[in-house]
Structures are given as structure tokens and as C-alpha cells.
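pinging the channel bc i need a second pair of eyes. not urgent but kinda urgent?? the chain im working w is below, pasted from the shared doc
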Amino acid sequence: MRRRQPAYLWAALLAATLLVGGCGNRPGGATPPDTSDAAAASADAGAAEAEKSALAAYAGYLDAVRKAERAGDPLDPGLRKYLADPLLTRVRLTIRDAKEHGAMRTGKLVSNPTVIAVDLVADPATVSIQDCIDATGYRLVYKKDRKVVPGSASGRHLATATATRYPDGRWLISAGASHEDQPC
């Protein structure tokens, strides 16, 4: 059974709390801790983690697309692992179209991505990525004779992508554009 504390004990505890808590408000007294540095450090750490996760999703996206393009498989499960709509549907249609015309991708695609913006306040959070794609060694060829498809040659150009954080915590590439008219 609980013993009831005398009222004077509660009053003394309240007075002590007020005295200790009020020390920082007097001139020359202790100042309250500055939480702005901690909040900034936390925001920086959140942005750094978002950048890292988004760049990993971007690298996974490029690898999955290359694999699916080589195999001519628009339903390759790796695509869903790194891409989200509307980009997922667009990539699948492109791969299907190449397959229907007897074409496939071969060679090496070189990528050098950088994060240009992080927006963790947006709902959903996003990271914008800019890349200098070198597609000089990455060719669209006919499957049967490996001849380059006319008009498909490409060089070094700018590409942009948006990584989006989904409710399950995954970062997926949801938008992307190839700016072949903008060399890098």
C-alpha cells in the first residue's frame, strides 16, 4: 500500500525544480543547451544517408536495365527491385520494343553520377541525380547478325534521374531522362 506523502514534501520538490530550472534565465547563469547544432548534424546525417541510398538505387537501376536489355527481358525481376513507375513502365516498353524488332544492347555503359539535390521534407522524399553517361561502347545491335541498328549510336551525354523514398523505406528510381543533346 502506498503511503501518502505530506503536502510540504511535494511543495519542496516543486520549489527545487523551479529553482534549478530557472538558473539559466538569470544574467550570468547557465544557458540552455543549443539544440540547433544537433538538429543540423542530424539533418546532415539524414541527407548523407539519403544520398548514399539513392546512388545505390541508381547503380542498381543501371545494372538491372543493362541485364534486362541484354536478355531482351522486359519483365526481369531486377527492374522492379530498383525502378518505380512511371520509369519502370517506360523502361519495360523500350526493352519490349527492341526485342520485338530483333535488337538488343551490347557493350559497356560508363556512368559517373552525382547528387544535385536532396529533399527530405517532400512527401515522399526525393534525391535528384545528374550523370554523365558514356554510351560510346554501348550499342543497340540486331540479335541475328550483331550489326549496329542505324541511328542508334550514342556518345557522352547528360542524364538525370529522381530517386524516391517509398513507405517501406526503399529508394527507387522513379523518373529519368537522357539528354543526348547535352554533351558532358
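so The first strand starts at residue 103 and ends at 107. and The CA atoms of residues 47 and 118 lie 7 Å apart. — does that match what u expected or am i reading it wrong
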